[in-house]
Specification:
Helix content is 61%, strand content 0%. By secondary structure, the chain is mainly alpha-helical. The chain has a domain of 53 residues: Orthogonal Bundle (Helix Hairpins). α1 packs antiparallel against α2. It is rod-shaped and about 55 Å long. The model has no long low-confidence stretch (mean pLDDT 83).
Length: 80
């Protein structure tokens, strides 16, 4: 399976891929080495998704802030 580390996938694409990985792992039909590779990819996708969710939450908090003096700066995620 080719790695997609060159271009960050959207949150929805990553979530879809993660769901497919879980289904393959739950099937129990994968050889051990392939299952480990799938698990590793799944962990990477889960971590990337968590970062994207945290960034979205921070962005929402900034937008909903009652502090008129809070600086609004362009959203530039580190990993994208």
């Amino acid at each position: 399976m080719p790695k997609k580390n060159d271009v960050p996938a959207s949150f929805e694409t990553s979530l879809n891929e993660l769901e497919k990985i879980v289904t393959r792992l739950e099937s129990g039909d994968l050889p051990l080495e392939e299952a480990l590779n799938e698990f590793e990819r799944g962990v990477q996708l889960a971590r990337q998704g968590q970062v994207k969710l945290q960034q979205a939450e921070q962005r929402v908090q900034i937008l909903l802030s009652d502090n008129d003096e809070a600086p609004l700066t362009p959203f530039t995620p580190d990993n994208e």
